[in-house]
Each structure stands twice: as C-alpha cells, then as structure tokens.
Amino acid sequence: MHSRFHSHEIASSESAFDMRKPTIGTDDAPQKIPSSQSSLFVSVIATLFAITAGTATANSFASPRDSTKRIEATQPRTETKNFFTWGALENFYEGLDARRAETFKSTGLKVGAFHSTLFQYATRSLPDQDKYGVATITGLYGTWDAVEIGDASAGQISFGLEARWGYGNTLTPSELGIAGIGSAIGTADPYGATTPTLVLRELFWRQGSEEKGWNYRIGKITPDRLLTASDYIDPVSLGLPVGSQGASAIAFPDSGLGFAAGWFPSKRYRVGIVVSDAAGDRTDLGDVGQGNFFKGIEFQAQLFPLTEKAGYSSLAIWHTDGTDDPSDALDSSTGEDGWGFFAKYEQELTRDGKNIFIARYGKSYDDAAVYKEQGSIRYVRIDPPDPFGLSDDRFGIAASFVDPLLNPLDRDEWGIDAFYRFNLFERVEASFGYQAIFDPSFNPDDDTISVFSFRISQFF
Q1: Residue 63 near residue 234 (C-beta atoms within 8 A)
Q2: What is the tens place of the pLDDT at every residue in 311-353?
Q3: Whole-angstrom Cα distance, residue 113 to residue 188?
Q4: 186 — alpha (psi -120 to 50), left (phi > 0) or beta?
Q5: Domains of the chain as residue ranges with CATH
Q6: Per the record, which residues fall in region Disordered (predicted)?
C-alpha cells in the first residue's frame, strides 16, 4: 500500500470512519514524526559489523518478493505438471529461455518479469463502501554480473521496476481491507495502486555468496524484503493478508538508500544486518540527509532440519530513529523513534520436506510501528494430493491476530486464511483463497466477515 495506516482519520460518528487513504503498514505505503536524533552508537556498530562480516544476501536474507528472488521465479522450471498444456505457450518460453541464456552468456545480464492480478470479494462492508476490489502488479527485474562472472564472489548490479494500478473507482484489494471492511489485518498486500504507477523500487550493488561466507548489498534497498523472510511467505504467490504474512510490528521504512550484509559462519547459522534511510520513499531517493535511520539485526538458525532445504528460524531486533516530518513515514513506520523485536520459528514436519510449520510473533515499543503486536501460525503443504496429479502446487492455512496502534474499539483482531495455488499453464499460476476476519478493528457493526480471492500470475 502506498498510503498509510496511521494516516486514516477515525470519526466517532455512527457511520464510523473517514478513511481517506486506506492502507495498513504493508508493502503499499510511505510516513514520519518528530524523533530523537539517531542512535549514533548503534549506527557505528552496525557499520563496523557490515564492514567486517559482509551482508544480507540476495538469496539468503531475502523474501520471495526481493528483486533477485523474482528473477529466480521466471527461470525454467523442471518436474512441473500443469493443469493445462498449451504448445504455443511452451514454445514461446523455450525461445525466451534460449535468448535469455545467450544474453547472459555474452553480457552477464539476466532479466525476468511477472504480471499478477487479484480479485477479492467480501461478504460485508462498511456503509457506502464497495465489497470487492481488484488490482494488478507488474514487475521487471534484472541482475548484471559486472565482476567475476560465474564466480561465488561475483559482483552484481540488481534492479527492480514495479507498476501497480487499480481499475476505475473500484477499491483495490489493499484498500478493501481497511476502507472497505474496517480490518487491521487487511485482505491483501501489496495489491494497491501507486502514484506514479511505475517506480524504480530497487537499484543496488551486491556481492558475495554463502559459499564465500559473506555478502552485501548497497544502494536503494527495501528493508521489509530482507528481515523475517521465508520461502513460504509471499503475497504474490502464496498467502495474502497483511496480518498473516506481513511484519507490520516492525517499523519498516519504504524503499530507500541503505545497505544490508550477511555473515554465514556455517550452513545452519547466519547473521544479517540492515541499515536504511528512515525517510525512504520508493518514488525517489528519500531524505537520507535527515540523518534518521532504521537499523535491524537478525539471527537465523536451522534448529531441527530434516532436509538440506530446511528453512531458518530467526530473531530480528530493530530500532528506528523515526522521521523529522510525519508525512515522510511510510510502509509500517509511524515516524516515531522506537524499537522492537520479531521472532519466527520455521520447521519441516516430515522428512520429505513437503510439510512446513511456521510460527511468528512481533512486538513494537514507543508507538513506532502501525502494529503494537502481532502473531500468526501457518501450515504449508508442498505438492498436496490432488486428482489431477499436479506438481509444484501449494496449500496453506494460517491463523493470526493483530493489535493495531490505532484501535478505537479497543480489541484484538484475529482471523483465519487459506489458499491453494497451482500451475494453470506453463509459468502461469492460479490461486484461490478464503479469509475469515473476526472482530475487525474499525468496524463496530460486524463481528465476522468472509473474503474470497482469485489471483492469476504469469512469470516471463
């Protein structure tokens, strides 16, 4: 959402809310507030750590939403059985992959794109608000191996261009959650409209690898795509609700100038840091001149791995200096100076690695983030049994609760959501989702609301 949760004005009238800019702290927004000057000591320690250790890697400390991970999703897929086969589409991809391989071999440039549209319908809504929302996201991502091509210490320039738009006067799914039904958990992230429609979301230099034991990135980065990451949490391909898959109990700034680094002392243990402009703004370079920064450190470990691909449990501790101007505070930041923590436990349940359990809990202090507290548990099944013999499909179910900073009804909101994603055609994914929201934070008239979703995504 590119508007902000705390920017909504909540009226005390019966009609309840004047939500001028409907969004929660998620991937669709920017914000700020007078803050104490940056904790210089913490910044210096973080900087020294980055110099000596390396950085939050593209593939290590990065969610599936990261530019480098999106490129991976566009590459040739093996052992995938689709619902339909379409020879013309498969031939198109064969030709595209061949040209892409030739380009990479001769120039070191790798490019990928995706296009995704989400439709949602809610059974109830606030007075005079729509019950449905629709929006589209398109992204173009690339990496250019500029140094030591093919080596584990290769240096790369990475970029991500993204466009998001709605349709006419219809709410977008990001708006449907808070403006349409009055929910703090929300119904989708990041399916909202941005202004301008097309933005250069990320542009950074990255180098290193887990092989080398270190890596880093520096430039225009997106902090909320680095911390608390999991391969089984992705709003464009897997679960949708903000409270379920997002981390808005962390006062993330929007995309801005910063750096991240990762240190890999062993296969099972990793440490990463992020330092970024607290006044970041995806539409430009933010305002690093304010001297306000977001700093985070995350410890990761494979606690009880059953396969080599086991995910990492993590503990992130963060601090933000806030912003000089409240209007500069975006994403899940309120602009206040504060800190917090976010923990994730990720565990394979079976030795084939196809059954995953994830528990998450985060808490913020000093009114720094749009959620004071949030928690969730989820189960994800890879390749669930189905009558069509599909492969690479996913099923997931989650339960979550949030305690938003703005809480006029003084109650925790909680919900249940589920999804099923499968390959409709070659590199064309279709998803169905259901969400039940209980005690919505900004809706005094409805105790339970159901939301139905259909999403279709194509990767190039």
Answers
A1: yes
A2: 999 999 999 999 999 999 999 999 999 999 999 999 999 999 9
A3: 21
A4: left
A5: 5-459 (2.40.160.10)
A6: 1-34
